[in-house]
Design brief:
By secondary structure, the chain is mainly α. It has a domain at 31-86. It is 71% helix and 5% strand. Strands 1-2 form a two-stranded antiparallel ribbon. Helix 1 (2-20) crosses helix 3. The longest helix is centred in the middle third of the chain and has 23 residues, at 34-56. It starts with a helix and ends with a helix.
C-alpha cells in the first residue's frame, strides 16, 4: 500500500507543479500523461528532500509539502527543456 500511497501523493504534487507552470507538454506519442506527472511528483519529493538536507543539514530531514512542490517544479522545468519541442 505504501507504493500506491506514494504514487497518489506524487500525482498530487506533480499536478500542483503543472498548475504552477502551465503549458503544453508533449511526448512523441501525445500529451504528458498522469503517469509522468506522478513520477515527476515522486521524484520532486526526493529532490526536495535532497535540497533540504543540503541546506538545513541532517539525515532525518524529510521534505514537506512545499519542498516537494519546489523539487517537482525544478524537474518539470528540466523535463520541458530536454523533451518538449516548441
Amino acid at each position: 500500500m505504501s507504493i500506491i500511497w506514494q504514487l497518489l501523493v506524487g500525482l498530487i504534487i506533480g499536478a500542483i507543479a503543472r498548475l504552477l507552470i502551465p503549458g503544453r507538454e508533449a511526448i512523441s506519442s501525445g500529451a504528458l500523461g498522469w503517469l509522468i506527472t506522478a513520477l515527476i511528483g515522486v521524484a520532486g519529493a526526493f529532490l526536495g528532500t535532497m535540497i533540504g538536507r543540503t541546506l538545513w543539514g541532517g539525515e532525518a530531514y524529510a521534505a514537506g509539502f512545499i519542498m516537494s512542490v519546489i523539487g517537482a517544479v525544478i524537474l518539470l522545468v528540466i523535463y520541458r527543456y530536454l523533451f518538449v519541442r516548441t
